Amino acid sequence: QIRDRGDGGRDRVRGADPGGAALGRRARNQGDGGLRGSLIALLLGIMLVLTVALWAAKTARRQARYLTRDPRELAGAVRLDLADYLADQGMAVPASATPRELSATLERNVGVKGERLASALSTARYAPDGDAARAAGQARVELRAVRRALRRRLGTTARLRGLLSLRSFGIGPA
Questions:
Q1: What span, in angstroms and rounded, lies between the C-alpha atoms of 79 and 15?
Q2: Average pLDDT of 133-155?
Q3: Helices (H) and strands (E) in the chain — how many of each?
Q4: Least buried of 99, 108, 131, 149, by fewest C-beta within 10 Å?
Q5: Phi and psi for 17 in degrees, rounded to 5?
Q6: Distance between CA atoms of 44 and 101, rounded to whole angstroms?
Q7: What are the beta bridge partners of residue 135?
Q8: Burial of 106 (0-12, 13-18, 19+ CB in 10 A)
Q9: In the chain, how long is the greatest CA-to-CA distance?
C-alpha cells in the first residue's frame, strides 16, 4: 500500500520495503556468524586454559620432587624427571631402568648423549654422602643440558604433543 503524504513524496507502509527485508536477512546472517565465532573463541579459550593447567600440574609435580636435601632422593627426582619427559614423548622407560639404561634409551631414541647424566646419577645414588651431594647437584646441571638437547632435537610440534600427553601421569598408552 502506498500513501500520498501530500508533499509529492511517497511513503510506504512499514515492512513493505524489499530493501529492508534484505537488510534484515544480512543482519541475521551476521548474527549467526558472530555466535559461531564466539563459540569457537570459547572453545579455544577452554583449550588454552586446560593446556596451561596441564603444564602447571606437570611443573608443580616436577618441582615437588626436588623439595629434599637428600642426594639420593634428588638423584631419584632427576631420573623421574627425565623418565617422565621421555614418556610424554612416547618413549617408555621401565621403572627398573638403571641410569646407564636410561642413557642408552635416550641415545637410541633421540640421539642425545646422556653418559655424563648417567654417571652423575649413579654417583649420587651410590657414593658416600659428600660425593653424593656434589653428584646430585651435577646431575641437575646435566639434566638441564640433556633437556636443552632434547628440545633442539624434538622440534616444536613434538614438544607440544609431549606437553599435551598424559603418559607421565600414567594415563594413556605406554
A1: 75
A2: 93
A3: 5, 2
A4: 108
A5: -85, 115
A6: 41
A7: none
A8: buried
A9: 109
Share in percent of the chain as helix, strand, coil (round to 5): 75, 5, 20
Listed residue (42, 44, 41, 40) closest to 52, CA to CA? 44
Specify whether the CB–CB gap between 40 and 49 falls below 8 A.
no
pLDDT tens-place string over residues 19-58: 555 555 555 555 556 678 889 999 999 999 999 999 999 9
C-alpha dihedral over 153, 158, 164, 166, to 10 degrees? Answer: -70
Axis-axis angle for helices 71-88, 99-110 (nearest 10)? 30
pTM for this model (two decimals)? 0.71
Distance CA 80, CA 1 (A): 82
For 98, the grid coordinates are 638403571
More confident residue, 26 or 116: 116
